[in-house]
Design brief:
By secondary structure, this protein is mostly helical. The protein has two domains: 2-85, no CATH class; 89-451, Na+/H+ antiporter like fold (Up-down Bundle), CATH 1.20.1530. It has 22 helices and two strands. A two-stranded antiparallel sheet has the order 1-2.
């Protein structure tokens, strides 16, 4: 059997044995991701939703549960660090492409709408999650710590993490859904992604602050300094770096006859990594630096098209499935036992949907948008996906989220992602999004827009 031969591959050399295992993992991950992407595309869901489910299916909840020997052989924990780095690199490139794809010129006339939506999209879900945590706390039991130890769940830390988990909007997944629906450069798309970016940045800052508080090391001054540095970096990119980048992109395209040469591509990679390093050092995660760089270059149409031709397909096929699978390997949704826990699981999803979908829809409506436009924004802001799983994994590792609640939040993350496209297709009728979506394959796979 191949499983027993793996440790002896290449004469027992450690590097070759690790490489063999990684290559087998990559084959499994890419094949399963593409199969699920095609299956979910056939039922009217974006391919990214299928890839998310594929990552979870490869984890301990399904593959590890039903085929434990094969799971342990293929996804050996000794190479987890390899996939952790690859998954983060994938996110950095994805966030750069998402920033590059968006047209922010609409924000000159709709900035107030984005701000109102983002504020409500943080405050209302956080409040609902914080309040629900107080009702759940007497019933959730103990949290598991590294090494198999358990401890009683601290109410304050649990409530703060529940509020933070409810507040997340997943920019990478939302961006990919919007790309597949051809609405990235629409007015509603620009408003939504801007509000989501503010929510996500605020969410990560809140996450950092709550983590520090749980570790009894919370300092308000450090949090305010981090926020100020992030704003300063963004302003420097827009007002200082952007003019220089514009001249460089024009030179690169002229030199390569509207294509990117090897030297220009190398410079671009260095710029992406430098921006990622900057925000990593600030403390708001490396992916935001890549996003800001992409947004800074988004007005350069020729450069955007050239970069997309080089990077988009590779990132989609190679890096993203790795990220989804790595997160799936850390996610064991297990099973919820007892009617009380299932009731709380339903309450978690309901509170999350009411806070994001309901709250952002109301905020958009109150800022002058039509009912359908507001609902489109609300459902897009409700997308959480695996960025949510990153947040709840932090809480789990800190011992403030027990296994049962972890399972509830995983279910909520998947549900709020799967519901995005069907509701968006229905609500898009008679809005600016309808003709844009009609140009995609979703117009054929779903007759919702034409019939209703």
């Amino acid at each position: 059997m191949i499983w027993h031969a793996l440790p002896l591959a290449a004469g027992g050399h450690a590097v070759e044995a690790t490489l063999l295992l990684v290559l087998i993992q990559l084959c499994v991950i890419i094949v399963i991701a593409r199969v699920f992407a095609m299956l979910f595309s056939k039922i009217g869901q974006p391919a990214v939703v299928g890839e998310i489910i594929a990552g979870l299916m490869l984890g301990p909840s399904f593959f590890g549960h039903f085929f434990p020997d094969a799971f342990n052989r293929i996804f050996d924990i000794s190479v987890n660090s390899v996939f952790q780095i690859l998954s983060q690199l994938g996110l950095i490139f994805l966030l750069f492409l998402i920033g590059l794809e968006f047209d922010f010129s609409h924000l000159k006339t709709s900035g107030k709408s984005s701000l109102a939506i983002s504020i409500v999209g943080i405050v209302l879900p956080f409040g609902l999650g914080f309040g629900l945590a107080h009702l759940m706390h007497p019933h959730i039991g103990h949290a598991q710590l590294p090494g198999g130890l358990t401890k009683a769940v601290d109410l304050t830390g649990f409530a703060l993490f529940m509020g933070t988990a409810m507040s997340i909007t997943a920019i990478p997944i939302l961006g990919r859904i919007m790309m597949e629906l051809n609405i990235t450069r629409s007015r509603l798309g620009a408003i939504t992604i801007t509000a989501a970016a503010v929510d996500d940045a605020a969410g990560w800052i809140i996450l950092a602050a709550v983590s520090a508080l749980v570790r009894s090391d919370f300092r308000l001054g450090s949090t305010l300094l981090m926020l100020g540095e992030a704003i300063g970096f963004a302003l420097a990119m827009i007002f200082v770096v952007k003019p220089l980048l514009k001249r460089w992109t024009q030179f690169a395209l002229r030199r390569g006859d509207q294509e990117l040469g090897l030297n220009s591509l190398a410079i671009l990679f260095i710029l992406i990594f430098l921006c990622a390093i900057a925000t990593n050092l600030i403390g708001i995660f490396a992916i935001f630096g890549a996003f800001i760089l992409g947004a800074t270059l988004s007005s350069e149409e020729g450069f955007r098209d050239a970069v997309t031709r080089y990077l988009r397909n590779f990132v989609t096929v190679f890096f993203l499935p790795i990220f989804f699978t790595y997160t799936g390997l850390r996610t064991d949704i297990g099973s919820l036992q007892g009617g009380t826990l299932w009731m709380f699981a339903a309450a978690v999803s309901a509170a999350a949907i009411l806070g994001k979908f309901g709250g952002c829809t109301l905020a958009a409506r109150l800022t002058g948008m039509g009912g359908r436009e507001a609902a489109c924004i609300g459902v897009m802001m409700n997308t959480r996906a695996l960025m949510e799983l990153i947040v709840i994994n932090v809480g789990y590792e800190l011992g403030v989220i027990p296994r049962s609640v972890f399972c509830m939040l995983v279910m909520m993350a998947v549900l709020t992602t799967i519901m995005t496209t069907p509701i968006l297709l229905r609500m898009a009728r008679s809005t600016e999004l309808e003709p844009l979506i009609a140009k995609t394959s979703f117009a054929i796979k779903s007759a919702t827009i034409q019939r209703n």
